Amino acid sequence: MTVLQMLKPHAGLRVLVTGGASGIGLVIARAFVDAGSRVHVCDSSQQAIDALNEAEQSAEMNAITTTLADVSERAAVDRVFDGVDAQLGGLDVLINNAGIAGPTGGIDEMNTDDWEQTIDVNLNAQFYFARRAVPLLRQARDGGSIIALSSVAGRLGYAYRTPYSATKWAVVGLIKSLAIELGPDNIRVNAIQPGIVKGPRIERVIAARAQQLGLSYEQMEKEYLAKISLRRMTTPEEVAATALFLCSPGGSGISGQAISVCGNVEVL
Known about the structure:
alpha/beta; Rossmann fold; D-beta-hydroxybutyrate dehydrogenase; oxidoreductase activity, acting on the CH-OH group of donors, NAD or NADP as acceptor; Sc_DH/Rdtase_CS; NAD(P)-bd_dom_sf; SDR_fam
């Protein structure tokens, strides 16, 4: 196998992407399909699931199958794995992508329910999926892989976004611990830490932060970009490309790492 060939995942990987019907998750799911993988996604949005299913049928692909699920509910996670069993018959890769932005505000004015929801979706769900996936990944022919989506907020402090940042730091602790635990089973565990990623979600985040600080959207966006060494946002495709590399033969020696794909965000 040449070095160039090592940069592409083996065809036929069975991949589960949580939160995979829209945004970064959908870009990752489609990237794996393009690489010859079979992909199952779950998502909490019926609208996003319907749109994905319609797009698959229109393209006559049916390469991505779906389950509607709230990842913070253990019973829903069990239904997702029923879908994985029925549609994929096993698992080689878990992409723990599902997450929410959480509330924006000072710690003393934050709603407790909003805090708990952020923990449930961004952290507890990572555990629920990992515990169900690991027995399947142990049976993966060429070794299993777990990729957790953290964030640049998982290596930097993030004022007024404490629930989000706290969960993303916790994800890094989770993957580093699991990498040690599961390495003897030939399961690699890594995190990707996207920065400011182009798309509707960051637009909502910037708008909320601008309102919190009494700035215009344009001023707030300019401040965000000024904190990135490359002075530009990251694209979802750059995140997806990193996920593909981590599941390729070229990435087979990488485990326990939190890899920032962010243009070097210097501070939040």
